[in-house]
Amino acid sequence: MRLPDDDPLDIQCFVYYLFRGSLHSKLIGVDYVFRLVREPQLLENAFRLFTEALRQHAPGGRADNRATEYLVAYFVTQDLEQAQTLLATAPVDQPDDVYAHFFQLACHFIHNTFADPIQSPHYLFDLDGCGTDAVPAFAVWTNVVNALAPDDATAYARALRRANDRARVQLDGYRPQEPFSEWEWEQEIY
User: Fold this and answer.
1) So where are the chain's domains?
2) Cβ contact 36:43 at 8 Å
């Protein structure tokens, strides 16, 4: 399954604004990113809600609303009951679709469980306020997962490997064995 046309931009914008600290006007000045990068479960929760919103949103609609509502409830209004209610709308067990593989990428990125882990021990801390540095691995994934492949499993595995390579390039100065093609580098947001 390929990502619908709107989803690469939605994914890249979500990652950019999430890490930049300006996902919603109510979150500006709250310094929520500082907490998210130090409490990976909260970051994973935001990605879980965003993944479910991607899965369910109508073409042309915004997919980040649930994650935004969760972050506002958790960090602005400090309504932990509302945050838990929102979180309960996103399944822990993901169906086997392209969105589950996006969430898998997010979890690898958050917890550094890539096959070839990021070497910088505090890379998440370095992304606090730096949306442009967080986007590249996700951009590569959105491009590669939609590229022609013999089957979905091959597309998902290759997309994850190339996103891993891109994260290492961005955060470690790594040089992958397979150089990137220009189409892999393309980003919807800069």
Assistant:
1) 6-88, 117-187
2) yes
